[in-house]
Design goal:
The complex is a heterodimer of chains A (114) and B (115).
Chain A (H helix, E strand, L loop, with lengths): L2 E4 L4 E4 L4 E3 L1 E4 L5 E7 L5 E7 L5 E4 L2 E4 L9 E3 L8 E8 L8 E3 L3 E6 L1
Parallel strand pairs in A: 2-12
Antiparallel strand pairs in A: 1-4, 3-9, 5-6, 5-10, 7-8, 8-9, 10-11, 10-12
Chain B lengths: L4 E3 L2 E4 L5 E6 L6 E7 L6 E7 L2 E5 L6 E5 L5 E5 L8 E8 L10 E2 L3 E5 L1
Parallel strand pairs in B: 2-11
Antiparallel strand pairs in B: 1-3, 3-8, 4-5, 4-9, 5-6, 7-8, 9-10, 9-11
The chains are: A mainly beta (114), B mainly beta (115).
Chain lengths: 114, 115
């Protein structure tokens, strides 16, 4: 079945460092791809999404490009802040499926130090 | 405009008991999905409700059941609780119209501890 694999954490960075969190997927169809963020004690928030190959999703300085040839959707940010500390989840949703259910990776904890 | 709300926030039960969790969707949304998030893991899809019917189900036993009411709110019931059912239970709402790309809005979750 469909699945998402993302790099294990924790990822510890200093403020203003460059961030990359790797995400690859396996899907029988042509999925939509998402990054969600979970701050401590809170639910999930959609960070960005891409629905077709070569689409770039972006929000709050974060970017990810849908790469069909490498089945990847890596999250990047040029300069992280302490407030970016959270758990980041890569996810996919089947196109043409019965529902918009999400399949998540295991999450990557990001800790940004001042 | 209230987002997705869930109750209770925390719950402690013992093995073998039954539990009911509640969810109110974001205003205007008609579809509710439930996810289980074990500690250190990503959320796992339990099921989705639309028009008071279970639309799709993940790989969870029949001990997990749900309901959707005419006002679109939803309940998740878990019978015969096991220690492994301890997790954060997330509710997400979305609009059915527009196909499978509709964003799901998540609630803050209910933390269930089974002793």
């Amino acid at each position: 079945g469909d699945s998402v694999t993302q790099m294990e954490g924790p990822v510890t960075l200093s403020e203003e460092a460059f961030l990359t969190i790797n995400c690859t997927y396996t899907a029988t169809g042509y999925p939509s791809l998402f990054w969600y963020v979970q701050y401590p004690g809170e639910g999930l928030q959609l960070l960005l999404k891409a629905t077709k190959a070569d689409d770039k999703g972006s929000n709050k300085g974060f970017e990810a490009t849908y790469r069909k040839e490498t089945t990847s959707f890596h999250l990047e940010k040029g300069s992280v802040q302490v407030s970016d500390s959270a758990v980041y989840f890569c996810a996919l949703s089947e196109r043409g499926g019965a529902t918009n259910k999400l399949i998540f990776g295991t999450g990557t904890l990001l800790a940004v130090q001042p | 405009d209230a987002g997705v709300t869930q109750s209770p926030t925390h719950l402690i039960k013992t093995r073998g008991q039954q539990v009911t969790l509640r969810c109110s969707p974001k205003s205007g949304h008609d579809t509710v999905s439930w996810y289980q998030q074990a500690l250190g893991q990503g959320p796992q899809f339990i099921f989705q409700y639309y028009e008071e019917e279970e639309r799709q189900r993940g790989n969870f036993p029949d001990r997990f059941s749900g309901h959707q009411f005419p006002n679109y709110s939803s309940e998740l019931n878990v019978n015969a609780l096991l220690l492994g059912d301890s997790a954060l239970y997330l509710c997400a709402s979305s609009l059915s119209v527009g196909g499978p790309y509709n964003e799901q809005f998540f609630g803050p979750g209910t933390r269930l501890t089974v002793l």
